[in-house]
Predict the structure of C-type lectin domain-containing protein.
Amino acid sequence: QLPTAKMAALILFVLLSVTLAHGSYLGPFEEVGPGGNCWYYFSSSEGRLATWLEARDYCHELGEILELQVDLAEVDTSKSCNSDDLMDTIKSKQDYAFHMGGSDVTVEGTWVWQHSQEVLPLSSSRWLDGLPYGDTDFNCLLATAETEHILDTAYFYDGYCDNIAPFVCQIFN
């Protein structure tokens, strides 16, 4: 027979394990798309705004708390999932442009997803026509579906890294 403190610890461990197995431990993250393994945090749901670097730091801090790999979201990489579902979710939040995990700050014109280190091709159909601007000041990726453009989904554009905007964090498996 286990002492009361050990029994309480065991019960807490079992409850936590069940909670982890069902995903509710992900707190502010929401599942996007089917399958139960694509989880994103939309900072706009909490009114949280940040620069691109602050957003990335915040994602990393969430990851440390959850003991998971969390970074700004990626689309169309080997590390991303349900890219179309994510872009559709971003489109549904039409009033926002979200910081995403891409940047060309290291080499101008070469867009790289920061978590996977995969290249985001300039030929990607996710860029709005005429983008990226190619300006050395626009080095951080944002995704939006601003109402001035009538599109089927959200699109990418390059913006200032110091823009204060909402952001999307992704749990990477």
